[in-house]
C-alpha cells in the first residue's frame, strides 16, 4: 500500500503533548487520558490545559491521579478513522508507564488496518515520532518502509529528562527509593533516561548547568559526528531552563541538529514529573 495523506492517518494519545502544528494537522487525531483532582475528572488537553494544571498542582494537598482511555474509546476512534483511511498508525505512551497501550491493543484486535506502536516514550518524544511519520506521509512512501522506520525510531531514539523534583516520580511509583534519595542530596541533579520504555538514572551531577550539559553530552554519545539529528524539546512551563537546554543542543557544531518542535508537558505526564521538568529527544537519520 502507498502511504500518503489520502490513505493514512495517525492516532496518538494526549501524553504526546503535541505542539500546535501537529495538533492542527488533519491527518492526526488525539485520544485523551483523564486527570483527577480528588473526585473532579478532566480530559487531558481538552478540559485541562497545562497552565491551569500546574496551578491546580501547586495548590493540591495530594497527588492527582490519571487513567487511560478505555478499549471501547479506542475502538470507536479506529472505526471512525477507518471509514476514511486504509491505515491508522496508533502511537502511544510507553506501555511501562500506563495501561493506554493495553487498551489500544484490545481494540486493535477487533479491526483491520491499525498499526499499533508502543513508542517507549512520553511527551515530546512521542511528538517527534509523529512529526517524522507525518513527514514521510507527506512525501509518500510504502507501508513496509514506514513500518521499518517506526521500528528503528523506537529502537534507536534517545530521551533524557531533568525534573526539578523527584517527589512525584517516587510517589507515583515511576522510580525507586534509591533514585529518590539521590535527588534529595545537596544539589545533586539526576539526569534521567527513558530506556526501552523504563525510567532510569543516566548520570548524577551537581548543579543545574552540569545537568543540562550532561543531557547535551548524552546526545553526543548516542549520535555520530557529521550525522543529521532530529530533536524535540519539552518543558513543564520552564522557559528559562528550556532556553539554556536549547542553546546547548543548538550549539552542537559537528552534527546537523534540527530541533523540530517544542512541546509543553501536559497534565498526565506533569502529574508524575512535576512542574518545571525539561527534556530532549533525538533520533539520528
Overview of this protein structure:
The protein has helices spanning 20-23, 50-59, 71-82, 100-108, 123-139, 143-156, 167-171, 177-184, 208-221, 239-250, 267-273; strands at 2-3, 8-13, 28-31, 34-37, 40-43, 65-67, 87-92, 114-118, 141-142, 158-162, 188-195, 198-206, 228-235, 256-264, 278-284. With 285 residues, it is α/β, with parallel strands linked by helices. It folds into two domains: 2-155, Rossmann fold; 158-284, 2-Layer Sandwich (Hypothetical Protein Tm841, Chain: A,domain 3), CATH 3.30.1180. The longest helix is centred in the middle third of the chain and has 17 residues, at 123-139. The protein is globular, with a radius of gyration of 18 Å.
User: What is the number of strand segments?
Assistant: 15
Strand content: 25-35%
The total count of helices amounts to: 11
Number of domains: 2
Strand order of the largest sheet: 12-11-10-15-13-14
- Would you list the SSEs in sequence order as H and E? EEHEEEHEHEHEHEHEHHEEHEHEHE
CATH topology of the largest domain: Rossmann fold
Radius of gyration: 18 Å
Major beta sheet summary: 6 strands, mixed
The name of the CATH architecture of the largest domain is 3-Layer(aba) Sandwich
CATH C-level label of the largest domain: Alpha Beta
Note poorly predicted spans. none
Average pLDDT rating:
93
Helicity level: 25-40%
Structural class: alpha/beta
What keyword list fits this structure?
285 residues; alpha/beta; Rossmann fold; Hypothetical Protein Tm841, Chain: A,domain 3; 2 domains; six-stranded mixed beta sheet; four-stranded parallel beta sheet; 15 strands
Amino acid at each position: 500500500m502507498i502511504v500518503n495523506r489520502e490513505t493514512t492517518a495517525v492516532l496518538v494519545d494526549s501524553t504526546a503533548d503535541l505542539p500546535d502544528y501537529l495538533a492542527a494537522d488533519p491527518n492526526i487525531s488525539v485520544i485523551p487520558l483523564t486527570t483527577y483532582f480528588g473526585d473532579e475528572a478532566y480530559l487531558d488537553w481538552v478540559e485541562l490545559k497545562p497552565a491551569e494544571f500546574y496551578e491546580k498542582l501547586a495548590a493540591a494537598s495530594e497527588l492527582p491521579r490519571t487513567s487511560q482511555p478505555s478499549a471501547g474509546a479506542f475502538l470507536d476512534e479506529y472505526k471512525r478513522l477507518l471509514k476514511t483511511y486504509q491505515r491508522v498508525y496508533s502511537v502511544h505512551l510507553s506501555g511501562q508507564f500506563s495501561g493506554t497501550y493495553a487498551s489500544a491493543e484490545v481494540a486493535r484486535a477487533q479491526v483491520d488496518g491499525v498499526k499499533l506502536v508502543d513508542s517507549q516514550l512520553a511527551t515530546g518524544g512521542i511528538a517527534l515520532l509523529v512529526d517524522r511519520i507525518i513527514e514521510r506521509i507527506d512525501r509518500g512512501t510504502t507501508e513496509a518502509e514506514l513500518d521499518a522506520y517506526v521500528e528503528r525510531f523506537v529502537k534507536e531514539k534517545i530521551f533524557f529528562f531533568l525534573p526539578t523534583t523527584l517527589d512525584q516520580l517516587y510517589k507515583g511509583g515511576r522510580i525507586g527509593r534509591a533514585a529518590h534519595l539521590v535527588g534529595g542530596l545537596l544539589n545533586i541533579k539526576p539526569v534521567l533516561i527513558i530506556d526501552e520504555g523504563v525510567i532510569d538514572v543516566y548520570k548524577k551531577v551537581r548543579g543545574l548547568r552540569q545537568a543540562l550539559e550532561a543531557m547535551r553530552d548524552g546526545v553526543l554519545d548516542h549520535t555520530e559526528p557529521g550525522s543529521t539529528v532530529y530533536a524535540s524539546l519539552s518543558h513543564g512551563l520552564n522557559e528559562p531552563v528550556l532556553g539554556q537546554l536549547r542553546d546547548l543542543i543548538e550549539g552542537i557544531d559537528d552534527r546537523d541538529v534540527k530541533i523540530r518542535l517544542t512541546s509543553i508537558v501536559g497534565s498526565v505526564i506533569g502529574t508524575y514529573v512535576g512542574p518545571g521538568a525539561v527534556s530532549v529527544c533525538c533520533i539520528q537519520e
